[in-house]
Design goal:
about 15% strand; binds pyridoxine-5'-phosphate; alpha/beta; about 50% helix; TIM Barrel
Length: about 270
């Protein structure tokens, strides 16, 4: 699919910062430091448009109290909170109690190290549709974290989601490992973003993005938001969180500007 998008048609690209791994470090000592809410404050001052946090069923990083604090903080600052959550009754109840700006439904397995793949919306329509419906009825913007697979994108549209977040993990890992599949995985992302946008879905992307991969991802013109966490929290050890986020933001913005400065680049990437 190669419909060229103009700057006027394209959404501005927002940056959501995922602060889960600030809680991972805190929990290593079972203490209160470092505080994810403080990291969220720094992130917003550094140019984050919103804050993302994943309340996992096993509470391995973000806690219920963190969600209370982040909900209050983002409300005070007038910034969106994006709650990542599994499709369970417990998480649905928590989301309905907080009514965050957005909820991103993700697959969750206790034994996984991180969210390993996208949600199987096509195979779990009957499980996912009622949760999407109840969150939407409560005024929450619903996002589904899926692989850039046309079947899953069509299923996300059919289930009534506002947003799809395309899983960039496989592409980013292939780039880091220097594997030749990276190009094909990138094309899948680009085509997935175009398909989702053509169905009227807002398109986000995230997982595994670092300084090396952000420019290519940010240049996909249909994307409205990137959610980035682990790399930035790691990079904060070396340069500080503020500087790490500012550099990421600058790379994103420069990639977007290049897309518009060079109209051929959308075709070149095709
Ligand atoms: N988006 C979603 C839906 C995620 O589950 C995660 C990881 O929690 C991210 C984005 C951020 O990924 P990373 O921490 O690898 O940047």
């Amino acid at each position: 699919m190669s419909v060229r998008i103009t700057p006027q048609q394209a959404p501005p690209l927002r940056l959501g910062i995922n602060i889960d791994h600030v809680a991972t470090i805190r929990n290593a000592r079972g203490d209160a430091y470092p505080d994810p809410a403080r990291a969220a404050e720094v992130a917003m001052l550094a140019g984050a448009d919103g804050i993302t946090a994943h309340l996992r069923e096993d509470r391995r990083h973000i806690s219920d109290a963190d969600i209370d604090a982040l909900a209050a903080l983002t409300r005070r600052r007038g910034r969106p909170l994006n709650l990542e959550m599994a499709v369970t009754l417990e998480m649905e109840a928590i989301a309905l109690a907080h009514k965050p700006h957005a909820a991103c439904l993700v697959p969750e397995r206790r034994e996984e190290v991180t969210t390993e793949g996208g949600l199987d919306v096509a195979g779990q329509h009957n499980r996912i549709a009622p949760v999407v419906g109840s969150l939407k009825a409560a005024g929450v913007r619903v996002s589904l974290f899926i692989e850039p697979d046309p079947l899953q994108i069509a299923a996300a549209h059919a289930v009534g989601a506002h947003v799809v977040e395309l899983h960039t993990g496989a592409y980013c890992l292939a780039v880091r490992e220097g594997r030749p599949e990276a190009d094909a995985l990138f094309n899948r992302l680009r085509e997935g973003a175009a398909l989702a946008a053509s169905l009227g879905l807002e398109v986000h992307a995230g997982h595994g993005i670092d300084y090396e991969t952000v420019s290519a991802v940010a240049a996909i013109p249909e994307l409205a938001e990137l959610n980035i966490g682990h790399f930035l929290i790691g990079e904060a050890i070396f340069t500080g969180l503020d500087a790490a986020i500012r550099r990421m933001r600058a790379l994103m913005d420069a990639a977007r500007a290049r897309t518009w400065a060079d109209p051929e680049s959308q075709e070149a990437a095709a």
